[in-house]
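Per reviewer request, we include the raw input and output of the structure prediction for the construct analysed in the revised manuscript.
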Amino acid sequence: MIKSILVDAHVHLALDGIDFQEARLQHKNNPNSIIITNVLRKYKKMGICALRDGGDNLNVSLLARELALEEGMILRTPGFAIYKQGCYGSFLGKPVADMADFKNVFKKLLASNPDHLKILLTGLVDFNQFGKVDGSHFSYDEMYYMIQTAKDQDLPVMVHTNSAEAVGIAVKAGANTIEHGYFLTENELQLMLEHDTIWIPTLAPLGNLIVSKDSRFTDQLPNIARIYDAQKAQVKKAFELGIKIAVGSDAGSYGVSHGKGFYDEVGHMVMTGISKRAILELATANGIGALNLNNKELDYIFQAKKSVELRNYDEDSSDLL
């Protein structure tokens, strides 16, 4: 039987959810261990002891992985992500122009002992136009090659992707997890079910903007709400189909704070009509799957923090649910 453990399956330790540039400046010369440790302790205080980072080009998540162990936590990281040269993703990792280039970059990546490979297949959701996402940055053949190369090294693969077409490419090519996955159709949901793919829908980045009525996005809020509502509807369908959904807050992205972002994500998922209990169970079972945690690692977490019961949070975190 799986022990209860809260897992945030999508975070960015190099960012703070407030000021993108300022957060990165704190780690510009070397990763700041004090800042990283404080963030990790915030998660731990809120009962979240397992994290999966999306990578960065400052080596923040690599240091965070070491510091997490000192805190009795587990943090998974790709080290840095892979993105198509000239496209979105420069702050997350390193660019590749073609598959020959990928071979060289992947060799360098392996030197950092990554826990998984992260590939950025598309850019971000356009807040100004519903359904607008740039096209897939890599072809199916390229995605298949990169994913199978990673799996040959026993590395699972997380893919940042939006749009029905791009998600379809990622799933068929063998992605273990789909990150974000906005604008899906029934077809992509069925593909994820058939391929046993884990989906991390990250509702919090948009949902938090709506809740806060953020003045930076006043003109865009109606469209953001439309996108958010569409994503919620697909999450509910996915749950009903039996697709593996994990809780990932995208903490560090604008408006999503570390630690609390997990509970924000749970709250937004509750808004889809799924029970809180079911969501927390997903956060455990599918979070463990997304991080590929083994029994030894789970025992390590529980020995360090005792048992984290689904309804037994400390005073600082209980009201967040």
